[in-house]
Amino acid sequence: ATVSEKLGLVNNIRPLSDGRVYVNDVTGRRVLLFDDKLQTFTIVADSLGANGNTYGRIGGLVAYHGDSTLFVDPQSLSMLVLDPAGKVARVMSIPNTQDAMSFANVLGNATMDPQGRLVYRAQPRMNFQAFGPGAAGGPPKIPEMPDSAPIFRIDLATRKIDTLAYIKTQKIKMNTTQDENGRIIMTSEINPLPVVDEWAMTSDGAVALVRGRDYHIDWVNPDGSRTASAKIPFEWQRLSDEDKAAFIDSVKAARAKLGANAPVVATPGGGTTNAQSGPPPGGGDGTGQRVLILGGPPLGGDGGRGRGNGQPAPGGATFTPPQMQFVAPSELPDYKPVFLNGFVRADADGNVWVRTIPTKAIAGGPVYDVINRKGELVERVQIPVNRTITAFGPGGVVYLTSRDGTTTKLEKATVR
Question: Which pTM value belongs to this model?
Answer without folding.
Answer: 0.83
